Known about the structure:
Blueprint: H1 3-15, E1 21-23, E2 26-28, H2 45-51, H3 53-72, H4 79-113, H5 117-149, H6 154-159, H7 171-179
Antiparallel strand pairs: 1-2
Amino acid sequence: MEKSEQFSDYLFAKMGPPSSTTVNGTELPPKTTERSGAPRELTGYRKWLRENLMLLVTLSGVLLGVIFGFTLRPLNLHEDSIMLISYPGELFMRVLKLMILPLIISSLIAGSASLNARMNGKIALRTLVYFVATSFMNALLGIALVLLIHPGDPNLHNTADRSTDKRAVNLLDSLLDLGR
């Protein structure tokens, strides 16, 4: 007998024949190693990880940023290096600021569309009153500040300190400004 035949006989003895087996006269289905098509239900730790993935990624990003900042601060990096390191964060903050207004407007539209007409009219009236009142207060604040500060007064302009810190603009700054 060859070794391969001995090995297959050993496997059949341990696993049983490949087609079907009988136990107490009842025929059992063949053993398969394939997984069923239904997805496994997550429980415990994996379920918690799946539900809180965004929170975990955000917290780990904040933690890495703090570690990165404390590690690089004592190195006294050059101004160009600091500009390159801060560039992704600056772009991220600009994208967040860009998303705020459309997000608020779309949520207001969706919320008002789900209300009935009577409630929608009350909210519209309150919104209009709030808008007019805040616009009036802003106009009064603007007039008061103009009277206090006198912007554009030539006498104030001549006495102002002319020493402004002007930084030389280099090629890297100009290239990064293309993406800002």
